[in-house]
Amino acid sequence: xxxxxxxxxxxxxxxxxxxxxxxxxxxxxxxxxxxxxxxxxxxxxxxxxxxxxxxxxxxxxxxxxxxxxxxxxxxxxxxxxxxxxxxxxxxxxxxxxxxxxxxxxxxxxxxxxxxxxxxxxxxxxxxxxxxxxxxxxxxxxxxxxxxxxxxxxxxxxxxxxxxxxxxxxxxxxxxxxxxxxxxxxxxxxxxxxxxxxxxxxxxxxxxxxxxxxxxxxxxxxxxxxxxxxxxxxxxxxxxxxxxxxxxxxxxxxxxxxxxxxxxxxxxxxxxxxxxxxxxxxxxxxxxxxx
Amino acid sequence: xxxxxxxxxxxxxxxxxxxxxxxxxxxxxxxxxxxxxxxxxxxxxxxxxxxxxxxxxxxxxxxxxxxxxxxxxxxxxxxxxxxxxxxxxxxxxxxxxxxxxxxxxxxxxxxxxxxxxxxxxxxxxxxxxxxxxxxxxxxxxxxxxxxxxxxxxxxxxxxxxxxxxxxxxxxxxxxxxxxxxxxxxxxxxxxxxxxxxxxxxxxxxxxxxxxxxxxxxxxxxxxxxxxxxxxxxxxxxxxxxxxxxxxxxxxxxxxxxxxxxxxxxxxxxxxxxxxxxxxxxxxxxxxxxx
DNA sequence: ATAGTTCTTTGACTTTAGTCAAAGGTCCGA
DNA sequence: TCGGACCTTTGACTAAAGTCAAAGAACTAT
Lengths: 290, 290
Known about the structure:
The structure is a homodimer of 290-residue chains.
Chain A: H1 3-27, H2 32-41, E1 45-46, H3 47-54, H4 58-70, E2 74-78, E3 86-90, H5 92-113, H6 118-139, E4 140-145, H7 150-166, E5 187-194, E6 197-208, E7 211-219, H8 228-242, E8 247-252, H9 257-265, E9 269-271, E10 282-287
Parallel strand pairs in A: 7-8
Antiparallel strand pairs in A: 1-3, 2-3, 4-5, 5-6, 6-7, 8-10, 9-10
Chain B binds a DNA duplex (30 and 30 nucleotides) through helix 2, helix 3 and helix 4.
């Protein structure tokens, strides 16, 4: 049986068997739309945000929000800085309702797991975690963007903040690549997106003829341990090949031991220092044949 | 993180991410109810069957069936032997529509898996198979029923047909336990149900004071490899303990090698023949302490 | 300051989904 | 062969979900 068939079979089984359950317990005595909205408000959100998250019509959402307010479950207010936007947040009663929903759904889930022994439950949890990890990874797309694009800069800022906290000596944002170093002929910049949010990046720049350098491979904390860094690395290497680089190099900081392990696992070998990067303690390179 | 939380997290992620996809692609330009019905008709079914499978109101279903017929997608006819029932089957146009739905959903699934490498796809398939197996097992309930109940007899009939095909010498239905041997003080009979369908059984009867015999442990072919036989065995042993039996015995046929392996794995030890069952080649017993 | 854009609200719908009860034909067991 | 049980159809509803367009307030860039 091929993977697509297996995937669809699971999909069908799961939505029929479990998905239904969740919806059923979520709704109870309230229209499902309202219940979902209530749940999605969480710690407050703008109507605009909810509209795009839930994919609802503006008019429809407006009315539902009003209905929740009329029931004393939510409160609408103006956005502090943009008066076009409306913020919605839960009242204590609304919060209570959400936790009650949660309790019911939890009880239903517990009832469902009751038929399994402890070892089997652990096995199920493990299998689900694996499936979820791979599904998330499958949903992430790695795309080439301009080095000056807002998403690229946002990733680099996050990257800089991240390593600034991890390097004992800190990290100076001026040491990031310049947009022009990773645009056009000079290099390339990739951003990984999960549901339209940037969750990782990686840069490639020309070091000398035939030699590229990979820099700033970074993955958002929420998206770690999925195997995304490898995918970024793959994309960067493919780009390097397309540019007829025969070698890619990179350096890493002593503090980033996982990164070093990953580079070695991906076929990179230790080489002597090829630059005087003050943050670097290890230098690697990899021959590309493709 | 406990199993219930992990379970619900996966549930939420999966329904949001994947479940939606299926419904969306399934429906396309047709109401979801009709699309589901169309799909569920398959190679023809009675309205009654569809009603219980989909849990729909009789009137609602009747109207939807008529709508499908009006669109030229299905054909209604009388049941050949029971004129109260109506049969519904797909027309060629309906069949085309279903395969088209199927193609689209398959393409969507394939697109989703595109981001993964072959090894990762295999890992995902494996994880999903594990999860599905355990979820199915969790959904099966093992209940005590009267030995003369129709479900009990249906299981025994299926069991008899099953082993009749597997034993070289065949199997005579008269050698099954009698209802009264497994009812009341004399013994017990368990049936395993999956979504209200009997999918397995097991009998316990008193052999002599303090000693019980387990017989006819059977699992429906569709429900094998889930770990259900062990659950039936557990239920039978618990029942035996409750009846203050200190020992349970059982015999098996030479052809049933998997069964023998399972009994050994569950703590049964080989003993000399305790009866002259013509079908038996191995005899086992297990001490119960509880 | 002005034109264009963004966001929400409101009114006026339509479609889908689902329920309930009455009625009529059919089957089955006594 | 008669009464009760079964199955489907039909009429008459309701509630939920969703769509579309107009209008008004507020922001943004030029």
